[in-house]
Amino acid sequence: MNLEKYLKEKRELVDSAITAMVGPLKGSSVLYAAVSYSLTPGGKRLRPILMLSTYNAIKGKEEPIIPFACAIEMVHTYSLIHDDLPIVDNSDLRRGRATAHKVYGSDMALLAGDALLSFAFEIISNRLHLEKFRESALLAVIHEFGVATGIRGLVGGQVMDIVSSNMGSIDKETILYIEEKKTASLISLALRTAGILGEVGEEELKALTDFSLEFGVSYQIIDDVLDAISSPEVLGKDTGQDKKNRRATFVALYGVEEAKKMANECVQKGIGFLAPFGEKYKILTDIAEYTLQRIK
Amino acid sequence: MNLEKYLKEKRELVDSAITAMVGPLKGSSVLYAAVSYSLTPGGKRLRPILMLSTYNAIKGKEEPIIPFACAIEMVHTYSLIHDDLPIVDNSDLRRGRATAHKVYGSDMALLAGDALLSFAFEIISNRLHLEKFRESALLAVIHEFGVATGIRGLVGGQVMDIVSSNMGSIDKETILYIEEKKTASLISLALRTAGILGEVGEEELKALTDFSLEFGVSYQIIDDVLDAISSPEVLGKDTGQDKKNRRATFVALYGVEEAKKMANECVQKGIGFLAPFGEKYKILTDIAEYTLQRIK
Q: Chain B window 194-223: which residues touch A at a Cβ cutoff of 8 Å?
């Protein structure tokens, strides 16, 4: 299978599903515009693609889980909009164009982010899902969305990121905390949602979780490396931000080369957790290996 | 029954339940401080008290619904924190003291709000609720939380509030839209959550909804009247804000006296919807009448 072709197909699938979902909100004019601007055209859609791919590996189909894949992308986009705000990172560029607050103002960007978080929960709690999934699995997934986006997840990571950069303190433990909460928690949510709705056993869910956490940390390290060595033209977002904001990253602590090595090690370790399942989750390990190419 | 005593007892019940819920988050230091500061001591706890009272009227107990009452207060507090931010209303005073961003900075206030929204969903999707409520009722309630806090609720109202005040346009329809979305949607959520989890019939749920929407609009009108005629010392928050921000309110459109009359009319109309149930929901109509006293 050609992985790039696969990723492109899945990305287009996610794009059109998101467009269809946001469409009915058109009535709300400015807000719809800000939400729609932020969501489409989107980024790599990594989290939804991981969710679709995991579910497909389990059940041999992906259609039932598409709304959840859209929801996780909405959560991701919400966190980007809020992180980009002038009162946080003050970023001008995202996904190749001006950030939401640059176009719609900080108040509308704030509210577009807020709306996306609520919308994600609205989507995943739709009672139509009861035709396809057990109620207890749905409830568990909603709970995981709550935890992964909150204090013990996204928000907690972002807070530690700000606190540690204000204090100028960089140590391995803090960096790992930030990468796990800020990035790995959503990637883990993607795989766990697929695992829970696909009703895999406890051991398998644990393996998927362990893989996703390693992959998530590696993905954030790759992001940090690219922030240090790439350009806005290539990445479509501001670079050199981590140094400017004195962010606690492995690049800052150990340098680019060592960070690259760590990203690779995380991926290999993660892949090890899926070994007991043979080829079943090959698509996940392929994607993980593929992301490493960005820093090669 | 002495209503003031009743409200005080319920307020204390909500206060201690919230304190117990937020306690386990202590590890997250600054964020916990910002969240805890914003939540306690709280305001009147109107929304959770309405939820408890409604459920009690239906089932003769309130314990099972306490977590949901806490969650709605968290949602309410989240919306206050975000509305108060310098990039929106830029308010300095809330609940008798400095707003969250004045104490913890705009970035932490933003994230404390974000955390509270996620936390609310985390709380209401806890699987322990399955011991007390049917799964389909739980799922319905989570969905209602998503809708009421999103584009078709809180956020939508806030956006229209900003847009209309920027444009300086004030007409009855716009004002009603704002009051319904910004305020009535959460008050309605309080009653509907109790009705759905209490498993009342469709007609009864509709009556509760109709009452709550009228009451919600009246409550926002009362708030607008107080903003015009009261003081920060009495209210514990900045006053005169609506005029300053050229907000679209009935006070601005018709004046204080006419607005008072409208608030009263809404309450009376709302009470009418509950008439078919005799004394069952007397506590709700008592609370609604009581809120009117603030502008007498």
A: none
